[in-house]
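REQUEST ID: PR-0412
SUBMITTED BY: lab tech R.K.
PRIORITY: routine
TASK: structure prediction, single protein chain
INPUT:
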Amino acid sequence: MRWLGIDPGAVRIGIAACDPDERIAVPIEVVPAAAAFPAIRSIAKREEVGGIVVGLPRLLGGEEGAAAAAARLLGERLRRRLDLPVEYEDERLTSVAAERSASRNRASDDLAAALLLQQFIDRRRRLREGARMDDAGDP
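STATUS: complete
OUTPUT:
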């Protein structure tokens, strides 16, 4: 299934998508936060996604602050208005890693979205493979 990754921010929102086989996530676009919903709706339709992964900006200790609450509100709005399942992925350190990878003249928000989406699909793949291993051992 194709997933859309969203790196929420107060100023910009990064958007990424994965391939239908959930192998690789790629950056798509950076949009102003004020225009995020119409852009996400358009991209979700164009990319024919089956679900959305919203980055959850937890504090380093793991607790959720104001930014995580805003991300959850965005996710709930997307779920209701787009009628797509929404998952949340811990995005601690993905923005830092994206900034290190981006050039000076380029916003890194879509790279952060791709990193958090890749983390999500990798975890899903490990869970599926673990379930297959467990099933193979059953008589």
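NOTES: The radius of gyration is 15 Å.
REVIEWED BY: pending
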